[in-house]
Amino acid sequence: MREPRKPAKPRAAKTTRSKAATLSKTVKAAKLKATRVTPKVKTAGVTQKVKAAATLRTPKLKIPPLKVPRPRNFKPLEVEVVPEGEDKLIRESVKLTFALQERRKAAQKGEVLRGVHPKSHGCLIARFTVSPKLRKRNRVGIFAVPGRTFKAKIRLSNASTSIAPDMDAGQNGSRGFAMKIMEAGKRALLKDQGAVNQDFLMINTPEFAFANVADYHRAMLALMADPAGIDGAAYFLPAKLLQLGLMDPKGKLLRPRGEEPPELATLRATFQHLATTPLFKDFGPVEMAGTLKSAQVLGKILATTVRNPLEVGYFAASPVRFGPRRIARFSVEPLGGPVPQAPISPQEVEALGPDFLAKAVAETMATGAALTLRFKAQIMHPVELEGRSELIEDATVAWDPEEFQPVELGKITIDPSDQPADLVDACKTDRFSPWHCLPAHEPVGGINRLRKPVYETSANHRG
User: pTM here?
Assistant: First the structure.
């Protein structure tokens, strides 16, 4: 007689979908993206630099808490889907952040710089004013009092890992906009060096380059594969191999058909070597899909020219709470809308110089005319997320502006007469984090869960 079947264990409230379903969807997505042309990625230097497995040696490091206490009256929204093993990847990413900052010191005259966005184009003093006629339902957190004005500080930057020319290797890059609103309220989820401030971090594309913690962690391993800790081209190697017909959409290296040209043979050998390291050791369909998403966003970044950081729009890379029951993604743009930016030709790069973005900011301030920016938000209710967890957990997915129409919440005013003498580095000691926030704007999603301890570690290491 058969033994009665044991009852199944109840499923946790927050779990990933079944592995089979996830793999099926990922492979399908990978096949679809494989038909698109991947952007040009620097791969020439990868094989010469990678001679051994990327190793991680760090002194005993105190990892900041991964979570912050939530006020009792702010119940969790239950919109996040936390993958199994994410905490481990976040802790490893914290160690990698520290190790990469140490590795880059040699090229930075012994100075420890920010882990990301180390190069500044300008540190501007500003005023943030909540819209006087803001609808009652949108009066939450920092926007609670219509017409209220706060002091603010804005840091414009490059997202590159080092202080490099603005058109590094003649290519466009991701540009950053970080705003710190001072004395924002009575309580912060994470205090900003003792102060209750509200930070908003944005980039000049609505999509972030990495979908989730796993992809971000892999990108950091790719940086570790570079002796200088600066060039992460190895992350995109599978996308390059797929484009050249050396790899299938599931991330499996194909067998050579006869003798290969030296360039292809070298790329193949590089991947085979890296497959023995943590970077590509367990590389498969899910990782391939993530790489292709990143490659697609990189293509958009490379195609987006910025000649003046004060003339373009910026977008939050991931969502935050908007009061007790809703979620939002913020954006900023010039009062009259973004100014079209003409592409920069190879001939222009040398003439513009390595720091042309800082020069453009300085020239804008030198005109003496005050500058106004609109601060907007796309707002949604958790019910609209049913079956669409990617809107929270996949940072490469932008929110459709037709479905979630941006609402103006306030204006930013930059008066040239208020600016510091050192326009570029006045924010050098400032720390920016989406977790410097009021409880009403608690960050959500994997990339934000990662940012808390990673950004804290980076800031603490700088001192």
Answer: 0.88
